[in-house]
C-alpha cells in the first residue's frame, strides 16, 4: 500500500512538473505564472493532506483492513510544493517591488538582471541534488534586489502607517505584502509597525480566550453559549464552534511566525496561543467523551430509543390513541448524523456505538419510509375534509387493513421484522401503494373542493339581482364538477354529505347576496327606464308614474320569492333548504318597502326640480313682457338672466339616476331650450317694438313741430300764435328727447343680442338735428318778420292817415249842415241820415284798420 501511495504521489508530481514546464516562470506574465503555481501547490498540499487523513485517522479505524503502519507522509511531493512556493515568492517579491518603485528607478532591478541567477535552472525539477544550486541562485537573487529593498522599505512603512487607525486593514496590508515584509531590510525598517501588529495579535488571542471562557458552558444559540449552526446537535455544534476558534488562533500564529518571529514578545505570544489551542483541544475531547458516555449508557436503557433489535416488529398501532408507531426512534436518526459528523471531524467512534450506528444505518432507509407512512396514517384524518371522508372510506379501510395484517410469508402467520429485508420491502411497497392511492384520492378531492370553493366565493360576489345568468352558469359548473367526480368511481351514496355541504355553502352565498339585495334592492333591481317630458302644459313621465311604480313592485316581488325557485346541487327531490331563507329574512321586508316609498318620493322630486324651468311655458309670454319690460335696463336684466339660465340648462343632467330608475331628461331639456329660445325671440321682438314706438313718437313730434315751424306769420296774431306753438314745443322737447336716447340705448342692446338694429334711427337723428336748427332759427325768423311787419305798419299807418284825412275831408265837405236840420225836411233828413250812416260804416272800417295797426 505504501508503494501504491508513492506511485500516486509521483504521478501527481510529474503531472504538476509537466504542466508548469510549458511556462517560462521568470518571463511570462505574473498573473499567469501565479495562477498555475497556486494550482500546482494546491495539488501537492491536497495529496499530502489526503495521505495524512487516510493513514492517520480513517484507515486506522477501518475494521475490515486496519492501517497498522505509521502515518504516511509523501515527502518528495511535499518538498516539490515548497519549491513551487519559493518560486511564487520570488515572482511575487519582484512584482511588488515594481509596484512601489517609480518608473525611473525600475532599471535597477531590470527583469533580465534580477532573474539572471536562475538561468539554466529548472525550478520545478526538484530533487536533493539540485537543491544546493537552487539555494545558491536564490542567495544571488537576494543580493541583486537588496538595493531595491532599501528604497521601498520607507515607502512601505509610510503606506502601512497611513492605515494604522484601522487594525483590520493594517493586518490585511501586512498579509498583502508579507513576501516583502519577510525581507530582512524591510523587516528591520518596519520594526515599530510589526511590534504594533504583534500587540494587536496578543489582544486578539486574549479576546478569543475570553469569548471561549464566557460561552463554553452555555447552551448553543443563546447569548451566553456557543454560536449555533444549522442541523447540528449540541455536541457537534460545540466542537464545530471551538474548531472555528482554533482556526482563528492558528491563523494568528501563522501570521506571527511568518512576520514577527524575530520580535522579543513573539515567544510569549506563541506560548499563550499554543496554550489556548491546547485548551480548545481539551474542550473538544471533553465534549466527545461526554457524548460517548451518554450514548453508551443509553444503549443499555431500552427507553432511550437507541436500542433496535433486528427481530423486533417494525411498527404497531397504539392501543390508547390508535396512532401508528414505528419501532425506530428519532434518537437513532440523530445518532447516525452525530456519528457521521464526528467521524468527519476526526474522532474515533467507540466500537459499541459504531455497531449500533451501523445497524441503525442498515434500516435507516426503510425506517424513514415507514415513518413517512406512519405520519401519513396519523395525520390523514386531519388532511381529509370532513364531508369527503365517506367518499374515501374504502381506500382508508384497505390502507388500515394492510397495517393491521403485517404478516410475513404466504400464510401470513409471522410478523414482519427488521431482519426480513425481502418481506419488509414488499410490505413497505404495499403500504406505499395504499398510502399513495389514498393520498391521490384525497389530493384530487381536495383539489375539487378548492375549485368548488373558488366558484362559490365568486358567486358570493355576483350580484343576485343583475347577474342571475352568472348564478345559473356557476350552479351548472358545480353540478358538472360533481358529475365528473362521480364518474371517476366515487359512489353517489358517499357523495351525499359532500353535496349537502355544498348546498349549505351555496345557501350562505345565496343568503349573503339575498341580504345584500334586500338592503339595496331599490338600487340593484333591473334598470327601469323612463322619459321626463312636457306635454299638455305639464311635466310628466313616459311611461306614466303609476306604470313605473307597478313595474318596480313587480320586480321587487319576484326577487323576494327567488329562494323558492332556487335548487342546489343535492339529491333531486330532496327538501330544499333554500325556501326557509324568505322567512329568516322577513324582517328586512319593511326596510325594502320603506325604501321603495322613499324612491318614489325622490322620483316625484325630479318633477319638482324641473318645474321652475317650464313655468314660462305656462304663461302668455307676450303679455308678460309688455307688462313688465319698459326701460332698457329691464331688457338687459332679462337678456342677462336668460343667458345665465341657458348655461344652467346646459348643466342640467341628461339623465337622472334614482336608484334603479333611469330618467331620461333630454326630452324636457329640449322643451326648456325651446321655451328659452321662444322667450328670447319674444324679448327681441318686444325690444324692436319698443324702439319703433319711441321712434314713431319722436317722428310724429318732429314732423308736427317742423310743420309748425315752417309757417311764416304775417300778422301780429299769427306771430302770437307762432310764439305760443314754439313755447309748447319747448315744453315737450325735454319729454321727447330722452325717448331718443332710450331708443338709441335699446337699439344698441338689440344690436348686441340680435346681431343688428334698426337703421331708421339714424335718419330720424338727422331729422331731429334739422328740428333743433329750426327751433334755434325760429325766433330770428319771428324778429325778422316783426321788422317786416313794422315796416308794413308804418306804410299802412301812412295810408291810414291819408285815408283818414281823406275821410275827414270828405266828411267836412259832405256832412249835413245845421240848416238842413233846421229845415226839418224829412227827405233831406233821410238823405242826411243815410249819408251819415254810410260815413259811419266807412269810419268803422277805418277804426278796424286802426285797431289792427294798434294791436
Automatic annotation (TrEMBL):
Pfam families: DHC_N1 (PF08385)
InterPro entries (UniProt xref): DHC, Dynein_heavy_tail
Domain Dynein heavy chain tail: 2-405
One Gene Ontology cellular component: axonemal dynein complex
Example of a GO MF term: dynein light intermediate chain binding
GO biological process, one term: microtubule-based movement
PANTHER family per the UniProt record, alphabetical: CYTOPLASMIC DYNEIN 2 HEAVY CHAIN 1, MALE FERTILITY FACTOR KL5
Protein's UniProt name: Dynein heavy chain tail domain-containing protein
Amino acid at each position: 500500500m505504501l508503494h501504491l501511495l508513492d506511485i500516486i504521489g509521483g504521478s501527481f508530481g510529474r503531472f504538476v512538473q509537466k504542466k508548469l514546464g510549458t511556462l517560462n516562470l521568470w518571463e511570462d506574465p505574473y498573473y499567469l505564472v501565479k495562477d498555475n503555481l497556486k494550482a500546482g501547490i494546491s495539488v501537492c498540499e491536497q495529496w499530502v493532506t489526503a495521505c495524512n487523513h487516510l493513514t492517520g485517522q480513517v484507515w486506522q479505524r477501518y475494521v475490515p483492513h486496519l492501517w497498522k503502519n505509521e502515518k504516511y507522509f509523501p515527502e518528495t511531493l511535499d518538498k516539490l510544493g515548497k519549491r513551487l512556493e519559493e518560486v511564487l515568492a520570488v515572482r511575487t517579491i519582484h512584482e511588488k517591488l515594481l509596484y512601489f518603485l517609480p518608473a525611473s528607478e525600475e532599471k535597477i532591478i531590470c527583469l533580465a538582471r534580477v532573474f539572471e541567477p536562475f538561468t539554466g535552472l529548472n525550478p520545478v525539477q526538484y530533487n536533493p541534488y539540485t537543491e544546493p544550486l537552487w539555494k545558491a541562485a536564490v542567495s544571488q537573487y537576494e543580493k541583486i534586489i537588496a538595493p531595491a529593498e532599501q528604497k521601498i522599505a520607507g515607502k512601505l512603512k509610510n503606506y502601512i502607517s497611513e492605515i494604522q487607525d484601522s487594525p483590520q486593514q493594517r493586518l490585511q496590508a501586512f498579509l498583502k505584502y508579507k513576501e516583502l515584509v519577510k525581507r530582512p531590510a524591510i523587516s528591520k525598517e518596519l520594526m515599530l509597525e510589526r511590534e504594533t501588529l504583534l500587540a494587536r495579535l496578543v489582544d486578539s488571542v486574549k479576546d478569543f480566550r475570553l469569548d471561549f471562557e464566557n460561552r463554553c458552558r452555555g447552551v448553543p444559540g443563546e447569548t451566553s453559549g456557543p454560536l449555533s449552526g444549522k442541523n447540528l446537535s449540541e455536541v457537534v455544534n460545540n466542537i464545530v464552534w471551538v474548531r472555528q476558534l482554533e482556526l482563528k488562533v492558528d491563523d494568528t500564529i501563522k501570521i506571527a511566525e511568518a512576520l514577527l518571529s524575530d520580535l522579543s514578545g513573539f515567544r510569549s505570544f506563541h506560548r499563550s496561543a499554543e496554550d489556548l489551542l491546547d485548551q480548545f483541544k481539551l474542550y473538544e475531547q471533553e465534549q466527545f467523551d461526554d457524548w460517548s458516555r451518554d450514548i453508551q449508557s443509553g444503549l443499555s436503557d431500552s427507553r432511550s430509543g437507541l436500542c433496535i433489535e433486528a427481530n423486533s416488529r417494525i411498527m404497531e398501532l397504539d392501543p390508547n390513541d390508535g396512532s401508528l408507531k414505528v419501532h425506530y426512534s428519532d434518537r437513532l436518526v440523530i445518532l447516525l448524523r452525530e456519528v457521521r459528523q464526528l467521524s468527519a471531524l476526526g474522532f474515533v467512534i467507540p466500537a459499541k456505538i459504531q455497531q449500533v450506528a451501523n445497524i441503525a444505518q442498515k434500516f435507516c432507509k426503510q425506517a424513514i419510509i415507514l415513518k413517512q407512512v406512519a405520519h401519513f396514517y396519523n395525520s390523514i384524518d386531519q388532511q381529509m375534509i370532513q364531508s369527503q371522508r365517506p367518499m374515501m372510506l374504502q381506500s382508508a379501510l384497505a390502507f388500515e387493513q394492510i397495517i393491521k395484517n403485517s404478516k410475513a410469508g404466504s400464510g401470513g402467520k409471522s410478523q414482519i421484522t427488521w431482519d426480513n429485508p425481502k418481506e419488509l420491502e414488499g410490505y413497505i411497497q404495499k403500504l406505499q401503494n395504499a398510502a399513495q392511492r389514498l393520498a391521490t384520492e384525497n389530493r384530487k378531492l381536495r383539489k375539487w373542493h378548492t375549485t368548488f370553493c373558488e366558484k362559490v366565493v365568486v358567486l358570493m360576489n355576483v350580484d343576485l339581482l343583475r347577474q342571475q345568468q352568472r348564478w345559473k352558469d356557476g350552479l351548472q359548473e358545480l353540478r358538472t364538477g360533481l358529475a365528473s367526480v362521480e364518474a371517476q368511481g366515487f359512489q353517489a351514496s358517499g357523495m351525499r354529505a359532500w353535496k349537502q355541504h355544498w348546498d349549505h355553502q351555496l345557501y350562505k352565498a345565496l343568503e349573503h347576496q339575498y341580504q345584500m339585495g334586500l338592503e339595496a334592492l331599490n338600487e340593484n333591481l333591473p334598470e327601469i327606464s323612463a322619459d321626463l317630458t312636457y306635454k299638455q302644459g305639464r311635466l310628466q313621465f313616459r311611461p306614466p308614474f303609476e306604470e313605473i311604480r307597478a313595474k318596480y313592485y313587480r320586480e321587487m316581488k319576484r326577487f323576494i320569492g327567488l329562494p323558492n325557485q332556487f335548487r342546489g346541487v343535492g339529491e333531486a327531490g330532496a327538501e330544499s333548504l333554500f325556501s326557509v331563507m324568505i322567512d329568516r329574512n322577513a324582517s328586512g321586508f319593511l326596510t325594502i318597502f320603506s325604501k321603495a316609498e322613499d324612491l318614489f318620493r325622490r322620483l316625484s322630486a325630479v318633477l319638482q326640480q324641473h318645474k321652475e324651468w317650464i313655468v314660462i311655458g305656462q304663461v302668455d309670454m307676450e303679455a308678460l313682457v309688455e307688462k313688465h319690460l319698459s326701460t332698457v335696463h329691464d331688457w338687459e336684466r332679462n337678456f342677462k338672466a336668460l343667458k345665465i339660465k341657458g348655461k344652467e340648462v346646459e348643466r342640467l343632467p341628461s339623465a337622472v339616476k334614482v336608484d334603479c330608475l333611469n330618467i331620461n331628461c333630454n326630452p324636457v331639456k329640449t322643451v326648456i331650450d325651446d321655451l328659452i329660445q321662444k322667450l328670447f325671440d319674444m324679448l327681441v321682438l318686444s325690444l324692436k317694438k319698443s324702439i319703433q314706438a319711441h321712434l314713431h313718437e319722436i317722428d310724429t313730434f318732429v314732423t308736427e313741430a317742423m310743420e309748425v315751424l315752417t309757417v311764416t306769420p304775417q300778422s301780429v296774431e299769427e306771430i302770437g300764435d307762432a310764439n305760443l306753438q314754439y313755447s309748447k314745443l319747448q315744453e315737450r322737447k325735454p319729454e321727447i328727447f330722452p325717448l331718443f336716447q332710450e331708443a338709441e340705448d335699446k337699439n344698441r342692446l338689440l344690436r348686441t343680442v340680435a346681431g343688428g338694429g334698426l337703421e331708421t334711427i339714424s335718419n330720424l337723428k338727422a331729422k331731429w338735428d334739422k328740428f333743433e336748427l329750426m327751433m334755434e332759427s325760429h325766433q330770428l325768423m319771428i324778429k325778422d318778420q316783426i321788422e317786416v311787419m313794422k315796416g308794413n305798419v308804418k306804410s299802412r299807418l301812412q295810408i291810414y292817415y291819408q285815408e283818414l284825412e281823406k275821410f275827414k275831408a270828405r266828411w267836412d265837405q259832405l256832412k249835413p249842415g245845421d240848416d238842413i236840420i233846421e229845415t226839418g225836411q224829412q227827405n233831406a233828413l233821410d238823405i242826411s241820415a243815410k249819408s251819415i250812416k254810410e260815413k259811419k260804416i266807412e269810419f268803422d272800417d277805418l277804426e278796424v284798420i286802426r285797431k289792427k295797426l294798434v294791436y
